[in-house]
Amino acid sequence: MPAMSRCRVCQHALLEFFDFERQPLSSAFVAPDGTDDEFFFRLAVGMCESCALVQLIESVPPELAHHEGYPYHSAGSSVMTKHFEETARRFIETELTGPDPFVVEIGANDGVLLHTCGEAGIRHLAVEPSGAGTVRVHRAFFDAASAAAILATDGPADVVYSANTICSVPDLRPVFEGLDVLLASDGVFVFEDPYLGEILERTAFDQIYDEHVFFFTVRAVQALAERFGFVLADVERLPVHGGQIRYTVARAGRRTPTPAVAELLAEERELGLTDMATLEAFGRKIQGIRTELVALLHRLRAEGHTIAAYGATAKSSTIANYCGIGPDLVPYVCDTTPAKHGRLTPGSHIPVRPAAVFADPYPDYALLFAWNHAEEIMAKERAFREAGGRWILYVPHVHVV
């Protein structure tokens, strides 16, 4: 597969700063007899020398990553369900106050936010190629054509929202062309995605995988919005998924940017967030975590301890494959998603078992792949700690709790 040596947005050169080497599709859990047909690519990241947008050097076709059987559902997490319900109520109180408001969600997954809006009598629509639960769905990728079709039947959108989706769209031009068609004159485009600043601060390198093409900063999103005739009107830090930012984008001249935008831009400059020296130092930390984690797992196994993993997440594909963690070190991973049970993790081929197996019997140690849900999981699995079990975490560094 040819490398993307140019920025996907402004076409300037990309400066590569880390290579995770050969990686599979992070959500392509395979049947035990299907390991010969896996798709692999080079997972490497670089920064645009002009607009400072950090992105994958190579990307995979989106239809390979997002499909009918896409295994993540936000309703499976009580934390994320609450997050989307609260976001919906906030929109209802602020942006969706007109006589007949209309909200559109790009990549709605199973539709928690839109369902909440619907219960409040708000017209809503999901633009979602892989289905969205029980909400009304326009089955397509969001672009000018799908936006025009929606406009013809539903009128302009007061809010276009997206969570954990925009960062996965390799070509953002069609998205902004669609916004220009569909967004009401005073409407807003609100999206939230992993924040590069949090990834670097936590050394949360497993946030880098095939489905995350872009790693946004306020500087890069501001430049992105302006390139397509919009303005970055607001930013807000979010604690979910290991640290995200919610960006609010409006048509140029319709909203005055809040002080939060300037504040975060100044913070990014002070931290040198998009300096190559900062990014290269991040790479050295990644290498250190790999060395420490693999050594710890080998030592525990040599001492006769039992080890399992918890959470067969998409991001666990990066750490398992980059660190060479397979069933020899971690014999199985427990997960609550039925569609993953009986299958193997991508590339690393660790068997996925139901969460109930975790207690039958408890392992001595559990490698927490789903570290971004640590509080929720540890509360749910309190009996594991009470039985003497220990959690292994690797964000922001390798440690045992």
TrEMBL record:
InterPro entries: Methyltransf_Zn-bd_dom_put, Methyltransf_Zn-bd_dom_put_sf, MeTrfase_14, SAM-dependent_MTases_sf. This is SAM-dependent methyltransferase. One of its GO terms (biological process) is methylation. SUPFAM superfamilies: S-adenosyl-L-methionine-dependent methyltransferases (SSF53335). Residues 239-396 form the C-methyltransferase domain. It holds the Pfam family Methyltransf_14. One of its GO terms (molecular function) is methyltransferase activity. Keywords: Methyltransferase, Transferase. It comes from the Bacteria. It comes from Micromonospora arborensis. The keyword Methyltransferase applies. The keyword Hydrolase does not apply. Residues 7-63 form the Methyltransferase putative zinc binding domain.
